[in-house]
Amino acid sequence: MKKSFSLYMMACLLFVSAGVDSAPSMKIYGIGGGNGRQVDILKPNNGETQSEITVKGSNGAACINIAGRWNFSENGTFTCQAEGEQPFTDPISDTGTFDILQNGCNISYTGPGPDPIKRTGQINGNMVTLSGVLVVPGAGVTLSENSFTATGAVNAPDEFTLSGTGQIRGTDSGVPFSCTLNSIGKFTRDSVLRNRIECLLNWAENNYPDLFSPAGATSQFQPPYTYRHYSQTNAYAGVSADNNHVYYLGPDGVLVDVGDLAGWLTRASCQ
């Protein structure tokens, strides 16, 4: 069975036809998370991280305000089986940005693209829940189940984590199939990520002056890159928002992917 997937709120082709190499279109939308620890935001002296911004829900209960733009990093698995076929499991991994709307303690977000999916949820204290459909089925696909839920916790003022699960069941051109999504991920406010990138670029200047001189270059943004240009060494250092990787462009004009941003942030103590 042929397979091809792209993740979180991106178009995806799901191949579930038994024994044939056809590709009915289906948009898959995921939102991941992780194992967030619970924080009691109403008890600032309990030794846990306390959020500074809270709001009141319709019942008067306090909850954290997470409205705004967030960057995410998601990993997990997508498992499918069509009747008469062996099941397959594909790893999933993605990064990107999305916007959360909040009214009291009710939250929602809408995926991009021509077939956007809207999900809704709530915050109870620092605990987050979201739900909605998992996919937009394509032609020839009939679904009897199409669900997605995510739960987790805001474990720092500008970070939260979620664990997501989804399930679809139905038929593709009359062939029964089922698929399950499991994902985990971490979410940081867009401003927080920018600050961490600035920290990393400062660290690179201080630790590799032979590559990045003169120090103190101003960061610039040219989608998808946040970068700095160093006139003395004729080099560029930057981060791509497309995949959250760090890049180096030297005087030879060759763009080099030097690895995942998360690893460099850890190495530079910019977490």
Describe the structure in brief:
By secondary structure, the protein is mostly beta strands. It contains 2 helices and 18 strands.
Q: Helical amount among residues, as a percent range?
A: under 10%
Q: Tell me the number of strands.
A: 18
Distance between the termini: 42 Å
What is the C-alpha radius of gyration, as a whole number of Å? 21 Å
Contiguous low-pLDDT stretches (5 residues minimum) are 1-27, 29-52
Q: What would the average pLDDT be, to the nearest integer?
A: 77
Major beta-sheet overview = 8 strands, antiparallel, barrel
State the strand order across the main sheet.
Answer: 5-6-7-8-9-11-12-13
Shape: globular
Please render the helix and strand layout as text.
Layout: E1 10-13, E2 25-28, E3 54-56, E4 62-64, E5 68-82, E6 88-103, E7 106-110, E8 118-124, E9 127-132, E10 135-137, E11 141-156, E12 159-172, E13 175-189, H1 190-207, E14 220-222, E15 225-230, E16 235-240, E17 245-249, E18 255-260, H2 261-267
Antiparallel strand pairs: 1-2, 2-10, 3-4, 5-6, 5-13, 6-7, 7-8, 8-9, 9-11, 11-12, 12-13, 14-15, 15-16, 16-17, 17-18
Characteristic terms for this protein:
single chain; 271 residues; mainly beta; 8-stranded antiparallel beta barrel; 5-stranded antiparallel sheet; 2 helices; 18 strands; 9% helix; disordered N terminus
